[in-house]
Write a sequence for this structure.
């Protein structure tokens, strides 16, 4: 049997990472026959594929986001479970990014590539902890702190800080937050902000998507203080620009130290970099004697944490 080179197992294509031997794409950005999906964020999990293989939570989040019929057929797979697709084996491992998020290990003829999707090594009470998966090629993002999906983690952190009063939710946060609760994550008392009297919202906390904070929607609050949770809040100018009064540096992505520590821990001799600051990470890998290349995949990094657009929500 001839040894397969890693680039023969997974190949970057306009639709996403393509595994010819297995007949599937990972996180395809265009409709494909068979998709293997890392997690439920909208830039990775799109509707319209023939068959979808993902964790049960990712499938459920896709259903909440797109409705029934988001794919021709679905198959759920658990962490640590391995399935054969064509001539390769596919195994899912926790990515620590959001509920149900997974790294996907693809093995063929003794060679293993791990597509990590989005991941973080920092602790998060709302999802399974990131697991280091030894591999020959590690595919990593390089976003270190995109301003994305962390509403549920923010609620959990507020509770960890012993704030026990009800927390109010913008309409666009309700479905997925309640899905987390059904999955066993406890958030304490949550209430819809919809229908609340202005005076009753004084001194309370409401969680809303970024798009809601700058529009007419905020007039329902008496004297609101705007906080913004994002890795970007490390950059003061960004916070000022958005008129943020309370910047919170929280990200659902590994930061620079997390990315580089993870790369070394996998033992991979070769690193492929997907989206974000590819150049910086490729340069760092090469300086460590690791083979590295950017994959030039497009369509990632613009993720929405809410399941519906927030504009047009009733006032
Ligand atoms: Zn994501
Ligand atoms: Zn992403």
């Amino acid at each position: 049997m001839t040894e397969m080179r890693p680039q023969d197992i997974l190949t970057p294509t306009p639709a996403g990472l393509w595994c010819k031997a297995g007949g599937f794409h990972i996180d395809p950005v265009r409709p494909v026959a068979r998709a293997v999906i890392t997690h439920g964020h909208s830039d990775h999990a799109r509707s319209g594929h023939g068959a979808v293989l993902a964790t049960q939570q990712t499938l459920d989040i896709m259903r909440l986001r797109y409705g029934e019929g988001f794919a021709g057929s679905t198959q759920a797979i658990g962490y640590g479970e391995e399935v054969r697709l064509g001539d390769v084996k596919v195994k899912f491992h926790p990515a620590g990014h959001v509920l149900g998020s997974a790294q996907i290990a693809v093995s063929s003829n003794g060679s293993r590539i791990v597509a990590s999707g989005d991941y973080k090594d920092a602790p998060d009470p709302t999802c399974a902890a990131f697991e280091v998966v030894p591999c020959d090629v590690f595919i990593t993002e390089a976003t270190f702190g995109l301003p994305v999906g962390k509403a549920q983690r923010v609620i959990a952190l507020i509770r960890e800080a012993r704030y026990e009063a009800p927390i109010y939710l913008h309409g666009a946060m309700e479905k997925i937050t309640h899905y987390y609760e059904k999955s066993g994550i406890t958030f304490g008392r949550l209430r819809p902000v919809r229908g609340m009297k202005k005076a009753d919202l004084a001194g309370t906390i409401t969680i809303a998507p970024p798009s809601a904070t700058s529009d007419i929607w905020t007039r329902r609050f008496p004297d609101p203080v705007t906080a913004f949770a994002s890795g970007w809040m490390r950059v003061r100018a960004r916070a000022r620009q958005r008129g943020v009064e309370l910047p919170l540096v929280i990200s659902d992505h590994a930061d620079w130290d997390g990315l580089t520590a993870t790369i070394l821990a996998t033992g991979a001799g070769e690193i492929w970099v997907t989206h974000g600051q590819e150049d910086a990470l490729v340069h760092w890998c090469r300086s460590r004697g690791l083979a590295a290349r950017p994959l030039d995949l497009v369509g990632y990094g613009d993720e929405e944490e809410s399941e519906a657009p927030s504009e047009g929500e009733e006032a």
